[in-house]
Fold each of these.
Amino acid sequence: MIPKSINIAPSVRNALKDKKPVVALESTVLTHGLPYPENFSIFQTLENLLISQKVTPATIIVLDGIAYIGLEENMQMKLKQMLKNKENFSKLGMRDLPLAIAKEISGGTTVSATMLLAHLAGIKVFATGGIGGVHRNWESSLDISSDLIALSRIPVIVISAGCKAILDIPATLEVLETLAIPILGWKTNSFPLFYTSKSVYPIEKIDNLDIFVSFWKNHLALKGKGILIANPIPEEYSLPLDKLDSIINESIEQAQIKGIKGKELTPFLLDFLAQATKGESIKANLALLKNNVQLAAELAKALINKGS
Ligand code: PSU
Ligand code: MN
């Protein structure tokens, strides 16, 4: 049963009822990832991209204690005002949802919380920028994103540009393997590192929709839960890793000096990168988000057309 505090937009409800494709979108990227007005404009761009592909968008966000799955026009305007006024948004992972609802606060949903709410509504496909993972220095901090746990528990297809090199990539890939979460590289056999299209880490490649749909059916039949589709940033926007490396190291050093940890760490590192690359990282971020949404639309349509 869906609690009253979860509000599914009529457009999303109807699309699901009529077996039309729906793609979920997260909101931490809006509340914590990008500044105003870029955040609201990327929200509109991504929603419009889906609509132009005849796919219903379902941006997921918590506003005043109500978890919205899809925003109607009036709520979009409310969100715009809130972002413009820089109102206080919490960063909500899946464990934070019950308290956010109880306290009637507002917050952006991370990958884990978005997966959970999407699944409750019956949405199978979710596009994001990058997932959280195992942070560097995990040996002492044990900082491992609950996104990985969510992927192991919730049967939703997550399309991302891999994850950021701010993380410990080999450790993140190990945990994904331990939790038996499949990673499928879309037309690539190397794990993409968000701003950078290629890496030295091999993954399984798929390059057509028939294989994808067949894979998903098999995965569910074999009691699998979440999967990660790794979709590299388009080559023309890809930033070379050696250029980012020193900035990333500096950002992690600064976080340590300032004592920034826990849920504040990822937003801090991303903000540092944006400033240090003079906005180049933001441009790349927007490009890969659009690219992921585009692929998510194709996958969502393929699941419907090929009867899954
Ligand atoms: N990684 C990014 N951009 C992001 C995030 C992660 O490159 O915006 C956000 C996502 O919402 C992700 C969350 O689910 O941060 C993970 O945070 P944490 O590491 O605190 O679990
Ligand atoms: Mn964390």
Note: The mean pLDDT is 95.
Amino acid sequence: MINPRPARLPARLGVLVSGQGTNLQAILEAIKRGELDAAVSVVISNRAEAMALQRAAAFGVPTAVVLHRDYPNRLSHQLAIAEILQSYRVDLVVLAGFDRILVPEFVRTFPYRIINIHPSLLPAFAGTLHAQQEALEYGVKVSGCTVHFVTEEVDAGPIILQAAVPVLDDDTVETLSARILEQEHKILPQAIQLFAEGRLEVIGRRVRIKSQG
Ligand code: GAR
């Protein structure tokens, strides 16, 4: 049994982003409302144009841009990111719309200290950046999102929380993505809070949520 928990409270978060950053915004707002006992220590993007960087700056959070094209391979790029995260002594790495597949060396640096949000009910539509489009094309009637621990196998780590949403007949990728995002913005801060409280127990593939207190 593994009981991942922060070294201290508020839990220190390192958030990795590539895009618009609405999940980052949800985390920052949950902290501001006092619903999340955490602090975002640093936001790191592999894309200079990511809107997430502006959202971080608006909350006074330090940011770093580590462009993948500045590095000869995935390993050296991600080791550079790991070094920054370690310099900020983060307790938890949160992948909030990060579009790179993590190398095993990165994952092993933060065992059970990396979580990811994925826009499907895993294990459906794993390993893709187009999970909503694939759900529509497949014709599923229910989709949703999943927060899970990151292990070396992509999108296959122990599941912490999931939320389901209906797929409607007239949905487009945009409308379905928006309905899923609404749920992402709830379960990602909730999962981080459970980690911060030390309430997650990993037993094999299963994550047990300990009751409060
Ligand atoms: C979210 O829908 C997230 O689940 C997805 O990227 C979006 C990022 O949105 N992640 C993946 O597809 C990972 N495979 P955001 O930048 O507004 O938080």
Note: The radius of gyration is 16 Å.
